[in-house]
Amino acid sequence: MTLISAAIILLLIMDPFGNMVTINTLLTEIPAAKRRRIILRETLIAYGILLAFLVGGNPLLSFFGVTPSTLSISGGIVLFLIALGMVFPDRSSAMPTRLDADPFIVPIAMPLIAGPSAIAALLVFAKSDPQLLWKWLGALTLATTITGLILWISPWLFQRLGRRGALAVERLMGMLLIILSVQMMLDGVAQYLQS
After folding, report:
1. How many whole angstroms separate alpha carbon 194 and alpha carbon 47?
2. Is 89 or 10 the better-scoring residue by pLDDT?
């Protein structure tokens, strides 16, 4: 897997267009300028969380004896479930509809940007080729930067696309992520059968 393909997978998982709808709905009472500052801060926090899992997550999993094939299959399953949620959204039970105060870490940095599927994907990448940690770091940095830029302009973009347009983009990204998650599961099964 190349740096660009890994970054695209992470970008699809971070789902900036779907999160744009959720974040702007949550922060609807906050002025656009302050909303942008919150989004920038939360994106940087999410990057730090994902970086910590990229660097330190696999030693922890190795301690528990988790193999790359197990990680690939389980990561693919998690991605598949997240992608189904993107294609058939029903977030009303998972997320509040409005925030009364300035959010800090939860729910924007984690789980919206640095969610379990992004963490699982990074762990799969790092476990598949630990010698190329710089490549996974580059992919993470690129994907987080693009996600942060999309979310930073999201008040303006959300206004232009409208709720229905943003949901349509999210569903398209969900379909692409379903394909990628199935491929990740098949790769894990192939690794398991070869070992």
Report:
1. 34
2. 10
